[in-house]
Specification:
Elements lengths: L20 E8 L2 E4 L1 E3 L5 E5 L3 H8 L5 E4 L1 H8 L6 E4 L13 H25 L1
Parallel strand pairs: 4-6
Antiparallel strand pairs: 1-2, 1-5, 3-4
Length: about 130
């Protein structure tokens, strides 16, 4: 007996977006390797973005990337302990600023200020 035709899709929604993701990579001795990140709970995760614009907004214009399908990314990173793929992460720590001569000078002044404070306290206590 034939099943009635339904307007609803009986298949569950795919867990990944359709099409390849923009995956951040880092250069290595044998080519590029997918960058792994940490979730807020500290677990390793692979990351992919649905657009180059989203990747650039989160990781900066200088971040190299490749296009990979989400299942391929998961298969590649699972042996490294990253069993999840995070798509389009919204929150991330800002990239570290490059150290400049001005910042080093400020660090030296802070160090001198701390030394002066310690000396003043030793005279006061002493």
């Amino acid at each position: 007996m034939a099943q009635p035709v339904s307007d609803e899709d009986p298949e569950p929604s795919e867990p990944f977006p359709a099409g390849p993701l923009y995956v951040p990579v880092r250069p290595g001795p044998l080519g590029c390797a997918a960058r792994l990140f940490r979730t807020p709970l500290g677990d390793r995760t692979a990351v992919g973005f649905t657009s180059e614009r989203a990747l650039t907004a989160t990781l900066g214009a200088g971040q190299p990337w490749v296009r990979l399908a989400a299942p391929a990314l998961r298969d590649m990173t699972a042996p490294l302990g990253a069993v999840t793929v995070t798509v389009d992460p919204q929150l991330s720590a800002p990239a570290p600023r490059p150290r400049t001569r001005h910042l080093r000078t400020a660090g030296t002044l802070r160090g001198a200020g701390v030394a002066a404070l310690v000396m003043a306290l030793s005279y006061w206590i002493g």
